[in-house]
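About this split. The held-out portion is used to measure sequence recovery: a designer receives only the structure tokens and must propose an amino acid at every position. Recovery is the fraction of positions where the proposal matches the reference. Here is one held-out target exactly as it appears in the evaluation file.
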């Protein structure tokens, strides 16, 4: 009979066994390398900590640096000074009380207002007088503000009449007397009463025209900002052949 060669299964088994041994050997090598690395890192950290504690350790003097005549100082208790807060407190109870207080510290400062009571309102500052506002006024700001009036008014000398009269020379000029414009009865009555557009009268009128002159055809809502009114007055005062000397602030 013919004899066939032995099957190659044994060869495959040996090869698989050798592969497993190789993998186990590689794993052991990696594990050994990790252990060595950890040991080196731990040693470096220990040495660094030891050096840092030696370099930055605070040395407290046993004796005062200098003596003050007539003053006797007690010797420092180094053991207490070298303790870290809050361990430096005398007892565990004291440390607990301090830590609890710090955790529950009030978020806001103390108030004199009783609980449930409404705090008193802070009174508003009194408005500045016109003279002070005129002293702080700016011609450039006034020119920008007057641009709100450009639909109805012109400000240049000899400018045309639009929905409202030309405003050249209005500061110090007569009320309701501009040439070429038909005024309302209310504005004519205002002119008879005050005569001239002095800065104070203009300041009042520009606040809300319809409240100052009932029946006026001027639909402008007014200027609630006192400083803006002063800026406009100082600008319009410059649009004149004879600008008025403006009032000076008191003091």
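Reference sequence for scoring:
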């Amino acid at each position: 009979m013919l004899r066939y060669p032995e099957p190659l299964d044994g060869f495959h088994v040996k090869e698989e066994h050798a592969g497993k041994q190789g993998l186990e050997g590689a794993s052991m090598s990696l594990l050994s390398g990790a252990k060595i690395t950890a040991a080196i890192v731990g040693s470096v950290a220990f040495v660094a900590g030891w050096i840092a504690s030696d370099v930055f350790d605070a040395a407290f003097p046993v004796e005062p640096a200098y003596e003050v005549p007539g003053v006797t100082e007690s010797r420092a208790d180094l053991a207490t000074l070298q303790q870290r807060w809050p361990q430096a407190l005398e007892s565990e109870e004291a440390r607990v009380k301090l830590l609890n207080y710090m955790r529950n510290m009030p978020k806001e400062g103390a108030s004199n207002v009783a609980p449930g009571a409404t705090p008193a309102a802070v009174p508003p500052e009194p408005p500045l007088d016109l003279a002070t506002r005129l002293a702080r006024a700016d011609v450039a700001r006034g020119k920008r503000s007057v641009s709100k009036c450009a639909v109805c008014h012109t400000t240049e000398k000899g400018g045309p009449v639009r929905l409202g009269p030309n405003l050249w020379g209005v500061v110090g000029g007569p009320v309701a007397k501009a040439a070429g414009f038909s005024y309302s009865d209310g504005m004519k009555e205002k002119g008879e009463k005050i005569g001239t557009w002095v800065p104070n009268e203009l300041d009042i009128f520009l606040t809300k025209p319809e409240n100052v002159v009932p029946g006026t055809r001027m639909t402008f809502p007014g200027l609630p900002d006192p400083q803006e009114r002063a800026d406009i007055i100082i600008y319009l005062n410059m649009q004149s052949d004879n600008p008025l000397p403006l009032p000076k602030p008191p003091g």
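Annotator remark: Residues 7-20 have pLDDT under 50 and may be disordered.
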